[in-house]
Amino acid sequence: MTDEFDPHALDQKEFLEQVHSFEFWFQAVEGYLTDRPYGHREDTPEVELDEDRRENLITTLCNYCVGETAALDGASGMVDFAPNRHAKIFLATQAVDEARHLEVFLQRIRGLGVSEPEIEIERRANPGLVRFKRRLHDFVAARDWEAAIFAQNVVLETMENTVFRAHAATADPITAEILDGVIKDERRHLGFGENDIGRLLLERPEARARLGELRRELDPLVLGAFEGAQADLGTARAERAELGREYLTAVERLGLT
Ligand SMILES: [Fe+2]
Ligand SMILES: [Fe+2]
User: Fold this and answer.
1) Sorting pLDDT into bands at 50, 70 and 90, what band is 3?
2) What is the spatial distance between Cα 222 and Cα 245, in angstroms, rounded to a whole number?
3) Fold assignment, 49-252
4) What is the percent of the chain where pLDDT is above 70?
5) What angle do CA 66, 64, 50 make, to 5 degrees?
């Protein structure tokens, strides 16, 4: 994304052609992926974490892996039934992003001394997040575009955007740098979701009731996962409530109550 890029200056067709393209994607990722193997600069210092903090960080990263795997499976599965070619192309770029996120988080877990991250992910996964992942999988398996794009590119992306930003502010330098690059991608994914759902609601206002219902089903899973993740990070209860509110405000921007 170059600094001059202004999505609002484009009409809808231009927007779709330019933003939903690998060309746009290359410009977007170039700045923060070049010279950053596994998402961080090689000379970023590793700080010594005490045992509790290290343990909690591993649990948090394991849960990030659950979310990233859900999005990788979801985005790649949705390519097959996306409503148009631009959406297919965008989802292909998203699948690449999500695979990269999964890879850098797995690598970070290994860097913290875990030799078998897969086993730890199974052990430490938050039940709410696992249920959310299963629901997203159901929507994709049913080729249900509006439910899948809403669950993945609005609900999940909003949650990730909120949690990752809060975490990056207090994380050790390597984790913070990794999160910084991931957040930039998640913003793009959220933008796609908001744009797509926004258009869908204009074309089919009757979809609002169903999306509102889905939101009521998915919110508790997401907010439960928040509680878990933030407890791992040692965040105070008041701050956790604040994060939950931030998430709800973001989802409500779409007018779904
Ligand atoms: Fe991601
Ligand atoms: Fe994403």
Assistant:
1) very low
2) 12
3) Ribonucleotide Reductase, subunit A (1.10.620)
4) 90
5) 130
The pLDDT, as a whole number, for residue 249 is 82
> What is the Å distance from ligand 2's center to 3 Cα?
22
Query: How far from 140 is each of 130, 144, 152, 199, CA to CA, in Å?
Result: 15, 6, 10, 20
Q: Which residues lie at CB < 5 A from ion ligand 1? A: 68, 98, 101
Query: What average pLDDT does range 171-180 have in this prediction?
Result: 94
Ligand having the closest approach to the CA of 157: 2
What DSSP string describes the chain?
--TT--GGGS-HHHHHHHHSSHHHHHHHHHHHHTT-GGGS-TTSPPPPPPHHHHHHHHHHHHHHHHHHHHHHHHHHHHGGG-SSHHHHHHHHHHHHHHHHHHHHHHHHHHHTT-S-HHHHHHHH--HHHHHHHHHHHHHHHTT-HHHHHIIIIIIIHHHHHHHHHHHHTTS-HHHHHHHHHHHHHHHHHHHHHHHHHHHHHHH-TTHHHHHHHHHHHHHHHHHHHHHHHHHHTT--HHHHHHHHHHHHHHHHTTT--
- Average confidence (pLDDT) over 105-119: 96
Given phi > 0 = left and psi -120 to 50 = alpha, else beta, which region is 46? beta
User: Which tokens in the block code for residue 108?
Assistant: 């970070």
pLDDT the model gives residue 236: 62
Q: Which long-range contacts (CB under 8 A, 24 or more apart) does 113-117 make?
A: 113/54, 114/58, 117/62, 117/65
pTM: 0.89
Q: What is the mean pLDDT of the chain?
A: 87
Q: Which residues are in the CB-under-5-Å shell of ion ligand 2? A: 71, 186, 189
